Amino acid sequence: MSTTAENAKQLADLSATTLLRFATAGSVDDGKSTLVGRLLHDSKSVLTDQLEAVEAASLKRGQEAPDLALLTDGLRAEREQGITIDVAYRYFATPRRRFILADTPGHVQYTRNMVTGASTADLAVVLVDARNGVVEQTRRHAAVAALLRVPHVVLAVNKMDLVAYEEKVFATIAEEFTAYASELGVPEITAIPISALAGDNVVEPSAHMDWYGGPTVLEHLETVPVSHDLTSCHARLPVQYVIRPQTAELPDYRGYAGQIAAGTFRVGEPVTVLPSGRTSTIAGIDLLGESVDVAWTPQSVTLLLADDIDISRGDLIVPSGDAPPTTQDVEATVCHVADQPLTVGQRVLLKHTTRTVKAIVKGIESRLTLDDLSQHPNPGQLVANDIGRVTVRTAEPLALDSYAASRRTGSFLLIDPADGTTLAAGMAGESFATHKVLTTVEDEEGWDF
After folding, report:
1. Which of 127, 222, 329, 352 makes an SS bond possible with 96, Cβ 3.0 to 4.6 Å?
2. What's the whole-model pTM score?
3. Contact 331/391 with Cβ under 8 angstroms?
């Protein structure tokens, strides 16, 4: 392996061990933004001018102590109402790990924002007010985390200072939430008693809860074994660009560039190009201007094939012995994120990795109520924040993995072809609770595939 490739591997290994993407969620006034502000403040991840601005804003509002929630609630409407509306992304680091944090809203009408924030998260922090316990919105957020296959969930039982730091209160809430989330299929749940306002068990251990022997929130975030190693997964390379220099030095060079979505590719390996099904062998791999024998996710590479075959942007290069099936009938769970409804028979564009194709919503099988996980068959449409099962017929075959197998190649977007608005975020395959009812709708304007 060349020196450049060795350096790339070292950088990939470093990212794998030090980067954690996580999202926070919870009901209104459970203290999400205060927790995030406390986390940033106590880990010394706040610039002096930022803290001064928060202190000035807090004094203007008549508060003696700085309101740390203002570190994340940046919109004017958020500060005026004391709530989170949009997803607030924050980047910070400690000596042990780097973090990308998505602080998501708590209101029911902003469920789509939580889906956006948690879609790429390795861990979700769900807050609960110790005085109220597990409420409807808590169950909703647990369900969204389960649907999105978030592998780690932290239950942060907040405002323990308002219940006299009682162990029994914490234990009751933790038991109820763990039982519910486990039924949804959440693989790992960690419960931590905290007071975001006072700083108990956020960054530093609490002196008021000697009965708790577990990690603080930051300690858990720094040490949770989150695997970014997708090299053992099904190898997938969505083609982003075809490189043809046609220069005197490189008259016959034809490379297929893109970021490896999952798995590992090696020189000499037989591969298949989807959806065409054409086959060839990897003749070379270019990485950072150097030739290498092997490449893995998430590296951006250029593959050279032994045969000149028709490949363009949107095609998927996979190992010949591990090719996903192609289909024109996509059955999936979608979260509707647009203000206009999604209806049966609607023309859409489906974007999967680097491929975008025309499609029609052939059926909306059911709408999921997150409160009790009940299915409502044949709702006819999905409106903003709805989650439902749909069947989409595409104009061209697509090679999708199931979302359960790969969050990157099992996800897609539905887009309005008229103005490019994102309509829905989709997860191919089965959700945790489905009742398959297929509906077919004829289209009279030439989009019936």
Report:
1. 222
2. 0.79
3. yes
How many angstroms separate the CA atoms of 50 and 120, rounded? 27
| pLDDT at 335 exceeding the cut of 80 | yes
3-state DSSP assignment of residue 65: coil
pLDDT, position 206: 94
Q: What residues have CB less than 8 Å from 334, skipping those under 6 apart?
A: 342, 382, 387, 388, 389, 390, 414, 424, 425, 426, 427
User: How far separated are the first and last CA of the chain, in Å rounded?
Assistant: 48
The whole-angstrom separation of Cα 364 and Cα 332 is 10
Strand-pair category, 19-26 with 98-103: parallel
pLDDT surpassing 80 at residue 29: no
- The mean per-residue pLDDT over the stretch 233-240 comes to 92
The pair phi, psi for residue 183, each rounded to 5°, is -65, -30
Distances from the Cα of 89 to the Cαs of 22, 23, 104, in angstroms? Answer: 10, 9, 9
pLDDT at residue 316 is higher than 80? yes
**CA–CA distance, 200 with 208 (Å, rounded to integer):** 8
Q: What kind and span of H or E run contains 295?
A: strand 294-296
Instruction: Identify whether the C-beta of residue 375 lies closer than 8 Å to the C-beta of residue 366.
Output: yes
Cα dihedral 275/278/280/282 (nearest 10) = -10
CA distance 391 to 440: 9
74 compared with 296, residue with greater pLDDT: 296
Q: Which two tokens stand for residue 168?
A: 């029994």
The bridge status of strand 152-158 relative to strand 188-193 is parallel
Residue 177 backbone phi and psi in degrees, to 5: -65, -45
Tell me if residue 10 falls in helix, strand or coil: helix
Mean pLDDT of 272-280: 95
d(CA 40, CA 47): 10
> Which pLDDT value is given to residue 66?
59
Q: For the residues 145-153, what does the mean pLDDT come to?
A: 90
- Which residues, at least 6 apart from 395, have a Cβ–Cβ distance to it below 8 Å? 328, 357, 358, 359, 447, 449
pLDDT beyond 90 at 433: no
DSSP string, 126-193: EEEETTT-S-HHHHHHHHHHHHTT-SEEEEEEE-GGGGTT-HHHHHHHHHHHHHHHHHHT-SEEEEEE
